[in-house]
Amino acid sequence: MRGFLFIAALSALIPFSAAAVEKEATDEKVERLDSVVVSSSRAGQNTPVTFTMVGKEELRRSNPLHSLPMTLSMQPSVVSVNEGGTGLGYSKMTVRGSKGSQINVTLNGITLNDAESQEVFWVNIPALSSMISSVQLQRGLGTSANGAGSFGASVNMNTASVNADPSGSAELSLGSYGTYIGSFSASTGLLPSGLYFNAAYSRGMTDGYIRNAYADVHSALAVLGWMDARNSLRLTWLMGSQKTGITWEGISLEQYETDRRYNPAGEYEDTFGNLHYYDNETDNYIQNHLQLNYTRSFSDRLSWSTTFNYTRGDGYYENYKPGKSFEKYMMTPPVIDGEEYLSGDFITREALGNDYFVLNSDLRYRSEYLKLTAGINLSRYDGDHIGSVIWSDVLGDSFDYGSHQWYLNRGLKHEANAFVRGEMTFAEYFTAFADLQYRGVWLEMSGPEDDGVLLDHRDNWQFFNPRAGLSVRWSPRSRAYASAALGHREPGRSDIKELILDANKAHEAGVESRGIDIRPEKMLDVEVGYEFMTDKLSLAANLYLMEYWDMLIETGKLTDVGYAIKENVPRSWRRGIELSASWRPFPFLQLTGNMTLSTNKIKSYTAYYDMYDNMNDWNYLGQREVLFENTDILMSPSLVGMANVRVRPFYSYSKVLDPLYLSLTGKYVGKQFYDNSSSDERSIPAYFVGDLSVGWEKGILGLSCHINNLFNRLYYADAWVWTAYFQQEDAYYSEPGVYPQAPLNLMFKATLRF
């Protein structure tokens, strides 16, 4: 509650919302050729959509420990969490409660979302904050985006920045839990010939807060380009590599109270009952992105940009699996010295390899009163899923494991997007906006899944996503806008897979199948906002109505053969108001804050719980249905807020200490339910976290200290639950898994720039 009061006090002082501290970064008057490539997916200063900008300076000053979701956590309506409890490793974010698979993420106009899961695995592209020049976070459906459909937010990132002069930097960061991060970058600047070359590399290592949360992550960026007055040719390579300990299981609430750093991953017992942990219980992935862009400016009004992208991803996670049957891994039980072994301990690898090809092209026309953009995006994703056994205690080290694949299935996905967008200014103050997008998706799955069931399936979807709005700017300081947008999102691979498994298993058992009964999600997004901006004060307020039809959620319902499946919920919504502000009353003091108040509801929801006879025998009796009316959507807090005070205490008093700054930030996240029952017993308590940063930069040298979780709060920020019902006791039993976050911890950073 004290955290909420801290934010409420600032919000009472400044009652509206600033669209961004760095709003000037959105001014499209800066029309360098190197920025045209990303402008087709970005909103301009008069586009009637809701967005904030995070510029290069803010990214540069961010905590070096933080992945991009953690860096964006102070933006309106954003909640970020790290599985390992710190910042390196698996991180994820929600925006207005919309999860990662509903957030479209692009880099230089090319989507980074995995085509099958529609997720962005941020751990695979570490240290992005140090390699990109700007980020635009659009909330709601926003503008047309390539790749996975934006269904709640979009993150548009840009690496296309050419320095006028040669430059370089080196950063070294050290912190708690054995954390080390080193980053280096260099640029030739724009040479007289028009050539330029930029390169950056980063490596981060940590032991992690919870057991087995270690991480060793690498990222590299190289840009080779050439430009003249009308042409730009650029080749960009981005690499991300990670080896991290598996942390996705979470821990029980009982374990949280006794040892919040515990992690069960890799745990097993030997033949004598001694407890051990497999030391390579890891997730491993490497991803290379190669982008070739050509941009042509035919005139001051007309430009064309085309990008070809190729992404190759390879990875696996390795697990110790005690007490499993040989049949589970499609292996014949061995007979050794006349004895048949039906089960044993195994080490398995579940791997994937994928190729992703994209062609993205758009044509832009701009005059004083009219902006027109038309674009196409074609993509092909080809991914293999492979399961292998690499060791068994029964077969020993001499067995030829390489000759046996446990499973191999393939996913092939094609997409075709086309859009046309226009902004027209009329009657001096008004800007009308229209955006029409066609998106076609073709999916093909084939081959056996991990239990041998064939995933042979084809599907296709055709979507039309219109957007329209009106912006009114009656003075340089004030703007109001309203927009409405319709969006669609197809089911993910896992959503379809569970229904395929049900259909195949039911067919083998002679049982009637539910079939592949799953529909795309649909949302109508209405945004109404107001912004006010002066040199010292930025205010805005935004009202949003995100109305869903056929939202896909997990209900706990099982297929006829025991698989968990998602179902379409006919009607649900997210409705709220976003308030944020920035005020600089004195040159040495800046106050910033934002707050989101929302309601996130499912009109009618049926939960399915496994039912057993009693708590002693656990004889399965089927499933119990429970109907909930007007219930809360899981992991969607109704109150989220942030407040920041930034001060330069020695401003104008000392030339040496003048650049010293202190930045105190507080983040409040209200109570969240981790299922859709609105039960307090299955909720994450509200939490408030404060961070303090102290920094100094003078000339080529910079020093900073980041104190995370300043008030040493012990809390968890994410959770899941399995619930069962016992008939005899007429009682429910729940097994939750929670993700503890680290207490007070430190990061120190030294920077050399030249």
How does this model look, in words?
The protein is mainly beta and 754 residues long. The protein has one domain (2-753): Maltoporin, Chain A (Beta Barrel), CATH 2.40.170.20. It is built from six helices and 38 strands. It has a 22-stranded antiparallel β-barrel. Strands 1-6-7-4-5 form a five-stranded mixed beta sheet. Strand 34 and strand 35 (701-708) form a beta hairpin. It is globular and about 85 Å long. The protein starts with a helix and ends with a strand.
Question: Which architecture would the CATH scheme give at its second level?
Answer: Beta Barrel
Instruction: Point out poorly predicted stretches.
Output: 4-31
Indicate the mean pLDDT.
88
Strand content: over 45%
Structural class by SSE content: mainly beta
Largest sheet: 22 strands, antiparallel, barrel
* Share of residues in helices: under 10%
Our count of helices gives 6
